[in-house]
Amino acid sequence: MLNHRRLVAPVDVSRKLLPKIYRYKNWNLASVKSTLKLSPDSILIYGNIGVWITDSTFSQFKDFNAGLPKGMDNRRILSMSLWHRIPLAGTMFGLYQYDFSSNKWKRIPLPQKNVQIESILPLGDSLLILTRSYVLTSDDLKHFKIITLKPPQGYDNKVGLFKTLWTIHTGEIYGNIGKLIVDLVGLIFTFLTITGLLIWLNKGKLQKRKNSALQKAQRTVLWNRRWHNRIGWITIIFLLITATTGMFLRPPFLLFVANSRVKKIPGTVLDSPNPWHDRLRAIIYDPYHKQFIIGTDREFYHLKSLNDQPQKFVFQPPVSVMGINVFRQVDTNTYLVGSFEGLYRWNPYEKYNYDIIFKRNVSPSFRQGRDDDYSTYGYTDDFPAGTVVFDYDRGAMPLDSTVSFVPMPPQIKNLPMSLWRVAQEFHTGRIFRPLLGGFYILIVPLTGLIAIFILISGFIVWWKIFRNNNKNNINNGTEKI
Description:
It is a single chain. This protein is α+β, with helices and mostly antiparallel strands and about 475 residues long. It has a domain at about 65-150. The chain has eight helices and 28 strands. The protein has helices at about 5-10, 160-170, 175-205, 210-245, 410-415, 420-430, 435, 445-475; strands at about 10-15, 35-40, 40-45, 50-55, 60-65, 75-85, 85-90, 95-100, 105-110, 115-125, 125-130, 135-140, 145, 160, 260-265, 280-285, 290-295, 300-305, 310, 325-330, 335-340, 340-345, 350-355, 360, 375-380, 390, 395-400, 415-420. The strands form eight sheets. It has a five-stranded antiparallel sheet with strand order 20-21-22-23-24, with no helix packed on it. The longest helix has about 35 residues, at about 210-245. The radius of gyration is 27 Å and the shape is globular.
């Protein structure tokens, strides 16, 4: 399911079926990314909840998702903007504009299908759309020009080791064919688990059975063992690669690969001529310095025009590997940067990062500890009482006043969770956090180590039996399966 997000996007799961940590409370769990003011008394609030329209006091909320495909994943809004008074919404799978004549969202065909829209930037009569790999420009929402940004100065044509392991683990490294191979590997893991369990359960019970029941049980065990062994040794390399790469995508093994860079593997999707392939995350235009500023998966760059070579800022803000969630200009030299590493006022010219939550200056390499763990996902300054930060776990946090943000209305609070997101919570082990607390983080590495041990030890046992059978066959002049 994780490999085919678009396919399962229409399917949702009620949060009542999940642990309480997955229930919405105080606008948490990435429910809100930001707001967009349509008029003095009409404001759109958007994020994982889709789009809802409210008034200037945030007292009433009305569903504004008509026209968007069904499913919470299809309605996950990453960016919004007004262009010629037309609301535009960027989602996980494309771009939409709101048609006031029909009161529905309408999909805008793009040159690339099902692309994730990271930013929407109006520039006078032109519109700039940022995907994860390219910049799209248009003057009429019908014709788009694809711009591939030039390589930055000092570009080494390398890619992050984490990204390499990620694409190997998912199979994406070889496109759709690779994904299908990993799908098959997942099914094989399931088959080996079931047949191995049946062999183990029945092994001690054969002696207790008699006559026909014993023969039937023996046939079942022999069939399970035969195909368990055959499929296991044939696919063991793929199984080991999947288990090993998965271990390094989660802490603590993630720490060993997070900052490493390696050469691109030739002939794979990573070996793209586009130096920004799957790296772009945010863009703004700075009218004071007359330049574009682009946030990527690793750092920030500036350039006067989209045809110039991007220049890396010498002084960078702290940003989580999970990506940039908030990026906007505050004043002439200061920008607001929010991620799962917190929320900062970043001044690359005077070289300081100011932690807004804890009111302190930090270095670009600063990383939060347990005592100051704030995960910024959203931000708005349209709330009458002042600016509001939306923390992933804590939810709405007003910064400028003691006035609380409005409670979540029931129709929003009871929204379901996408099936893809539920599958991801199981896959990463986070679903077990209510039972294990912080120790849930060890599920993936321990499962990976145990899987590798079982695969190798099982292969050794099979190999010894296989060799012994071959010797007996040669000595006896017979052939055995």
